[in-house]
């Protein structure tokens, strides 16, 4: 689960090698465009290790 109410998470895959990198790049691009139109703040910071 997410820590804050406003957090969302989605997953990309399954994919391997270069295809995995392509999927991540496309997903991040789409997220940037969608959040830009919605006026929402996007953070791509990794989950901290506990």
UniProtKB/TrEMBL annotation:
Matches recorded under PROSITE patterns: GS_CATALYTIC
GO BP of this protein: glutamine biosynthetic process
EC number of the protein: 6.3.1.2
Annotated ranges, domain GS catalytic: 1-50
GO molecular function, one term: glutamine synthetase activity
Subunit composition and interactions: Homooctamer.
Similarity remark: Belongs to the glutamine synthetase family.
Protein name, entry field: glutamine synthetase
Origin superkingdom: Eukaryota
Top EC group: ligase
UniProtKB keywords: ATP-binding, Ligase, Nucleotide-binding
Annotated coiled-coil segments of the chain: none
GO cellular component: cytoplasm
